[in-house]
Amino acid sequence: MGGMSAIIDNAPYTSFHRRLALACSGGPLLDGYILSVVGVALIGMTPELGLSTAEVSLIGAAALIGMFVGGALFGMLTDKIGREVMYTADLLVIAACSVGSFWVTDVWAIVALRFVLGMAIAADYPIATSLLAEWLPVKDRGRLLGKQIIAWYAGAVLAFGVGYLFLRIGGTGSWRWMLASSAVLCLFFLVVRRGSPESPLWLAQHGRDREAVELVRRHLGREVTAEELRGSPAEGGERLDAGSVRALFSPAYRRRTMFCGLFFLCQVAPLFAMLTFGPAILGSFGMPGGTVMETLGTGLISLVFLLGCYPALRAIDRHGRRPTIIWSFALMIVPLAFLGLWPTAPAVLALFALCAYAFLCGGPNVLDWTYPNELFPTSIRATAVGFATSVSRIGAAVGTYLLPLALSGVGIGPTMLMAAGLTAVGLLVSVRWAEETRGVGLDQSAVAATAPAVPAPTERQPAVPRAARSVGRA
User: What are the domain boundaries of the chain?
Assistant: First the structure.
C-alpha cells in the first residue's frame, strides 16, 4: 500500500487545508477578475483609443494566448523545480503588469501587458492546483479542487461589480483604474501565501527526504517515511521523468491527455467569449445599450456560473465525476441551440437562456482542474495541468477573437449554433473518455490507463489485493 494513501489521503481535514485552499485560489480568482474586467474596460477604452473591431478582439484574446504559452512552459518547470519556487513570483508579475496597464497609450502596449498577464496566471494553475491536490485528503479532494473554479467565477463577478462602480463614479474614462485594480488582489494573496509549504510528494521524489517527512509531521501531525511518500512503481505507475511532455503522449497517458485538453477546450471557448463580450452579446438581443444594463446583465450571468458550481460539487462526490460531466455537457447544448434557432428572442428570454447555460456549466467547471490532477502522477501532474490549460486557452483565444467578428459578420444566431456545436464535441469526448476517480486515492487514480485504479484504502479498511481490484471506471 502506498504511504501517500495511508497518510495524506486519510488525514483529517484541518485549518491547514483551509488556509492552503484559500492561498491556492488566488490564481483562479485573479484569472476570472482580469479576463472579465477588460470586457467592462473596453467600453471606455474603445472610443478613447479609437480601437477597431480587430483590435478589440486582439485585446480580448491576448491574455488567453499568453496563458497558452505560460501553461505549457510553467507546467513543465513546476514538475522540474518544484511547486513552491514560483508560488510568489507569478503574483508579483501580475501586480506589476496590472499597475503598468494604467499608463498605456496604445493598443500594442495593452496587448503586450495582457500577454504577460496571461503567462503569469497560467503559471499559477499547475503550481497551485498540483500543490493543493498533493496535500488534500481523498474525501475532500474533489470538493476543494472544484472550489478553485468557484474562485474564478468569484473573481469574474467581482470584476463586473468593480467595473460597474467605476463606471458610475468615474464614467467611461475610468477604464485605466479598472485594469490596475487587480494589483490590490495580488497584494492580498501575497500575504495569504506567506508560509505555504512545498509538496511532500514532490520533495520525496526529488531526494529531499528529510524536508518531506518534516512537512508531513508539522502540518498533518503524522509520521511517515520518504519511501512511503514515494510509493512504488507498481502502485503509483511507472517512474517518469519530471516534467516529461513525452510521457503525456505515451500509450499509457495520451488518452487522458487528450480528454483533459479537449473537454476543457470545448467548455471554455464559448464561456470566455461570453464573459469577455457579454455586453455585446446581450446588446445583440436588444438589451438596452450604454454602460450599465449590459454590464449588470453580464455580471448576473457570471454570478449564475458561480452558483451552478455548488450543486456540481455535490454531484461529483455523490454521483461521480463521469456522469456529472456527461449530463452537464448534454444539457448545456439546449440553451445555446435555443438562442441559435431563435436569434430574435426578447432580451429577457436571451438573458434567461444564457443564465441557464451558465448554471449547467457547473459540471465541467468543477472538473477542469480536478481531472488532470487526479489522472496523472506527481512527476507529470503539473505538466498535465499546464498542458490542459494551454489547450483550453487555444479554444478560448480563438473564440474570444472570433466572437465579435462573428457577431458583426454572420449574426447572433449562427454564432450561438457554433457554440452549441462545440459543446456537443465536449459531450462526445466525455462519453468516450471520461473516467471515474471518485473515492480513489491520488496515487491510484494516477496509475496509467492500462492499469487498474482502486478506491483509496482507509485506516479501518485494509488495502484490497491487486488481483481483486477493479478499474475505477463508471
Answer: 3-236+244-450
pLDDT tens profile 253-265: 999 999 999 999 9
**Which pTM does this prediction carry?**
0.76
35-39, 176-180, 404-408: least confidently modelled range:
404-408
Q: Which fold has domain 3-236+244-450?
A: Growth Hormone; Chain: A; (1.20.1250)
Three-class SS string for the chain? CCHHHHHHHCCCCCHHHHHHHHHHCHHHHHHHHHHHHHHHHHHHHHHHHCCCHHHHHHHHHHHHHHHHHHHHHHHHHHHHHCCCCCCCHHHHHHHHHHHHHCCCCCHHHHHHHHHHHHHHHHHHHHHHHHHHHCCCCHHHHHHHHHHHHHHHHHHHHHHHHHHHHHHHHHCHHHHHHHHHCHHHHHHHHHHHCCCCCCCHHHHHHCCCHHHHHHHHHHHHCCCCCHHHHHCCHHHHCCCCCCCCHHHHCCCCCHHHHHHHHHHHHHHHHHHHHHHHCHHHHHHHCCCCCCCCHHHHHHHHHHHHHHHHHHHHHHHHHHCCHHHHHHHHHHHHHHHHHHHHHCCCCCHHHHHHHHHHHHHHCHHHHHHCCHHHHHCCCHHHHHHHHHHHHHHHHHHHHHHHHHHHHHHHHCCHHHHHHHHHHHHHHHHHHHHHHCCCCCCECHHHHCCCCCCCCCECCCCCCCCCCHHHCCCCCC
